[in-house]
Write a structure and sequence with these properties.
heterodimer, A: alpha/beta, Rossmann fold, 7 helices, 9 strands, 34% helix, globular, B: mainly alpha, two-stranded antiparallel ribbon
Chain lengths: 217, 269
């Protein structure tokens, strides 16, 4: 369960406050795969970050007893001046893990970077960073995986491997996913839809209903 | 696949893990990328100490590196002034930049802005504390009258100075959200302190009617207390632990207060 109580999130702009969600109270089931839909700038990613506990509401509270991942598509959680290996260790440390070696070996192997794994992250390409980020998120046992516009991580061969791993992961974990593509949402087995529009958040018990509403926006 | 679920860590354990992780990360980026690494941390004080000691000793004893002032050998006297000052000014710049330098890492829910400030403060304190110790050993080896008579007092003064500097660092760091160029104040603050914090004089050298103009400065208190902790015969009657501790308390209070007000804005993207 992820419980939202009177949650309001807004951004101050020159033209007044822009609300992502306003006074939302609801309970999201964590045994379902949730799709978040909305137009560009509606606040889908912000909602995902709120659920993941890396952004915070202006008012209200979001509570959960589940272990939620960081947004998987993102590789912005890296420190550019540290190597892939060091970044990997950092993530292990903050999660209270001490078996660095196993994790490093796995991520190095998974990302197929070889010796480049020991170069500063900032010298790698976007795709290579994405591989490391993806590999790292496959290592930890999360109850809920957050997927933010999971497109184009790497070349076709890597993509295939990534999907296979993700599929395996999804046996034990549920996902919350942001995507514009109904095909992708269906493919990932989403069966609950949230549509965000102009500060309102509507939950649909059926993904197809949500997609229908989204396409009418 | 590698991990079975462990029991939930307590918030305190998470804090400890995160601060340690950030601490290692700071160490790596601080010294990993320079070829000489830690050596730079010593070269800067060495040039300051060498120059001032040579001048003062030569004027007073006719020999380089001889003589002492207020019962402290010249080079140690300058070292005990310069390094605490350096610690203080580093805490300001490092604290103010703590958030920007770690922005990406707030994408992990465990990492909060205050962890970055805390780990940097801890790093600077341990770093400059060890540099002082290494200098002391070095001087002892060269047959100077090196001493840390009251280690507890030494650590206490150093820690209070760090808390004071860390508090100001936190204020500057959080203040940047509302006043974006607040970090331009740092040199304005630290440059004058270089001349009035007792780096190259002792408070006893100053006529006592002027003490009141200097004693508002907590850094001076810290430096005099550190010298007194090392050499009990060094006169530190005019300075007080209480004042230093209160300054630290007040700055940390304000730092934490504005942090509590604004911290969510720091992680918002």
């Amino acid at each position: 369960m992820i419980r939202l109580e009177n949650v309001t999130k807004s951004y101050p702009t020159r033209f007044g406050r822009q609300y992502v969600i306003r006074n939302v109270s609801c309970t999201l089931p964590t045994n379902r795969n949730i799709a978040i839909l909305g137009r560009n700038g509606a606040g889908k990613s912000t909602l995902l970050r709120l659920l993941g506990g890396i952004d915070f509401p202006d008012r209200g509270e979001i509570t959960t007893d589940k272990r939620i991942s960081w947004p998987l598509g993102l590789s912005s959680g890296f420190q550019g001046s540290m190597t892939g290996r060091e970044n990997c260790r950092f993530v292990c440390r903050i999660h209270g893990r001490s078996n660095f070696k196993e994790v490093e070996d796995f991520v190095q192997d998974f990302s197929e970077l070889g010796v480049k794994f020991d170069l500063p992250i900032k010298t790698l390409s976007g795709g290579q960073k994405g591989r490391i980020a993806f590999g790292m998120s496959m290592v930890f046992d999360f109850d809920i995986l957050l997927l933010d516009e999971l497109t184009a991580v790497g070349d076709p061969a890597f993509k295939e491997k990534a999907s296979a791993f993700l599929e395996q992961r999804r046996q034990k974990a549920n996902i919350v996913m942001v995507s514009h593509s109904p095909v992708q949402l269906r493919q990932f087995g989403c069966n609950l839809g949230i549509v965000i529009h102009e500060g309102q958040m509507t939950i649909y018990d059926n993904l197809e209903d949500a997609i229908y509403v989204y396409q009418q926006l | 696949m590698f991990f079975t679920r462990d029991g939930q860590r307590s918030p305190l354990e998470v804090l400890k893990d995160v601060i340690f992780a950030l601490y290692i990360r700071e160490l790596k980026t601080r010294f990993g990328s320079y070829r000489l690494g830690l050596v730079w941390a010593f070269l800067e004080p060495v040039s300051f100490i060498l120059l001032l000691t040579a001048l003062r000793s030569y004027r007073h004893t006719g020999a380089l590196f001889g003589g002492e002032t207020h019962s402290i050998p010249y080079p140690i006297f300058f070292m005990l002034g310069y390094i605490p000052y350096q610690l203080f000014s580093k805490l300001l710049t490092q604290g103010a930049a703590a958030i920007n330098a770690n922005q990406g890492l707030f994408n992990y829910r465990q990492v909060r802005p205050i962890d970055a400030i805390l780990s940097r403060t801890l790093l600077e304190m341990l770093l400059f504390g060890s540099i002082m110790l290494i200098f002391m050993i070095f001087f002892w080896w060269f047959d100077f009258d090196a001493s840390i008579a009251d280690p507890l007092k030494f650590v206490a003064a150093l820690a209070l100075l760090s808390v004071y500097g860390g508090g100001i660092g936190m204020i500057l760091c959080v203040g940047q959200l509302r006043v974006p160029d607040i970090d331009k104040l740092i040199p304005l603050l630290t440059r004058p302190l270089f001349f009035i914090s007792g780096l190259f004089f002792s408070l006893s050298d100053i006529p006592s009617q002027y003490h009141k103009y200097l004693l508002w400065n907590p850094v001076l208190h810290a430096i005099e207390l550190i010298r007194n902790a090392c050499y009990p015969s060094y006169n530190a009657d005019a300075v007080s632990f209480t004042y230093l501790a209160l300054s630290a308390l007040v700055t940390v209070f304000f730092g934490l207060a504005i942090y509590r007000l604004d911290w969510k804005r720091m992680v918002a993207t």
